[in-house]
Sequence to fold (328 residues):
Amino acid sequence: MRRLALVVLLAIAPPLHAEVPAWTDEPAELVRVIERADASRSAGNNLVAARLYCTAAAHGSLEAQYQLARLYIGPLRARRGRDTGHVLLALAAQRGHERAGKLLSTLRRPLPTPLERHLPTCLFTSAPLPPADREAVAPHAVVEHYVATLPPGQRSHARLVQKLAPRYKVDPRLALAIVRAESNFNPSARSPRNAMGLMQLIPDTAERFGVRDPFDPEQNVRGGLAYLKWLIARYDGDIARVAGAYNAGEGAVDRYNGVPPFAETEEYVRRILGFYRARRHVVGGRRRILFLLERGMRLVGRREASKRQRGSRVIDSSVASAPLSGLL
Fold:
């Protein structure tokens, strides 16, 4: 009976590679390599995934080091043994990777020594990172997973941002980046400079965009999105300038002809670009892409119908009278 229970438990347990990758604030160049590795692992190409994870880990990615450890503990344990995964996991946990620490605590065996002997050589001979595509926004699926894993209170406010942003022609991913950096989805946040609410509106900005109660989540988000839309138009979609102006004011951006050289603003811009990734605003985001695809399909359909109509004038009458399903 116990054997049967164990077999059932193993059958329903998710495989090691099934863990959904967590959100990481690591540089875009590293994140894109990790996402390629995730895709390879999902397709069953564990060796390709390991090579990509190792490349990112060699350039300092803790998340990639953790994922590489999981491969060596799981699907690739026969190639190097579990010791390599164990050591990688311990080093990631030592550097503060929370999930690595939790997984490490389940191994319940001594750490192999010396550590250096068990590290994969790719950590020391890795190729340079491919340059990140500055036009590619963070994938919708990745951002959606980030939102889905937020605590319930924060998640409800993130959903509000996602719902309202398209109405202001603002990519929801950029709006989420701003709210995350401003208040971390806390509608009661107030800064020492009296910036208030989810999008941290100062009194002048709140008045400028018709916000009566900046602590009302929907009013605050609508006002912040209206301001963001105005900034996107003013700076022609340049995300660095838009973010710099949202943080330090458009006057400072105009005065310095770019991101103001303030430590706080430079870090703020880095955080926004780290989340959104693209250097320019994507007009309409996903909705715009779907609209263009649907419009293109309608145009193709009309052209095909027109061709069939013109061709029907020279088609034999017996064919013209045949059932439509027989001609498709």
